[in-house]
Amino acid sequence: MIQASIRIVVSDGIRGEALEVLRCLKEPTEVQKGCRGCRILQDVDDGNALTCVERWESLKDLEDYAQSERFRRLLPYIEMSVEPPEVEVDLLQRIHGIEFLARTLAPE
Fold first, then answer.
1. What is the pLDDT of residues 24-44, one digit of tens each?
2. Residue 42's domain is classified under what CATH number?
3. How many other CB atoms sit within 10 Å of the CB of residue 33?
4. Residue 46 main-chain phi, psi, to 5 deg
5. Cα–Cα distance between 69 and 83 in angstroms, integer?
6. What is the pLDDT of residues 61-80, one digit of tens each?
7. What contacts 66, CB < 8 A, 6 or more positions away?
8. How many CB atoms lie within 10 A of CB 97?
9. Which of 2, 9, 23, 102 sits in a 20 to 30 Å window from 76, CA-based?
10. Contact 53, 4 (CB under 8 A)
């Protein structure tokens, strides 16, 4: 599985607009071939810091999406980031869920 994230910091003047674009992209992204989920996060310490986190079945699926017109709607906001945007693409070997906590917190 692939996890991709893009973090941008926008100015106060475009925060609402940037959030609306991210919201409008969320559902259509989730139905793209290979998309396992999309989350839009707003930093609790800096409301202008926005992060889009997506999970993909394969790098090819992510590449196809990144080349789409839909994704290109996000590019102007990446370019307007008042701090250098952070882009990460991670290969996840194994994802642990609640069973990790149950096993870790279980009394020995």
1. 999 999 999 999 999 999 999
2. 3.30.70.100
3. 11
4. -145, 100
5. 25
6. 999 999 999 999 999 999 99
7. none
8. 7
9. 2
10. yes
Alpha-carbon Rg of the chain, whole angstroms? 16
The predicted model scores a pTM of 0.84
Question: CA 71 to CA 30: how far, in whole Å?
Answer: 12
Query: Rounded to an integer, what is the distance from CA 42 to the centroid of its chain?
Result: 11
Q: Could you tell me the residue range of the domain that residue 71 belongs to?
A: 2-105
Task: Count the residues in the chain.
Answer: 108
- The neighbouring-strand residues paired with 54 are 4, 38
- How many distinct structural domains can be found in the chain? 1
Among residues 29, 14, 36, the alpha carbon closest in space to that of 82 is found at 14
Query: 3-state DSSP call for residue 100?
Result: helix
Here the tokens at position 50 are 């926005």
Q: Name residue 8's beta-bridge partners.
A: 50
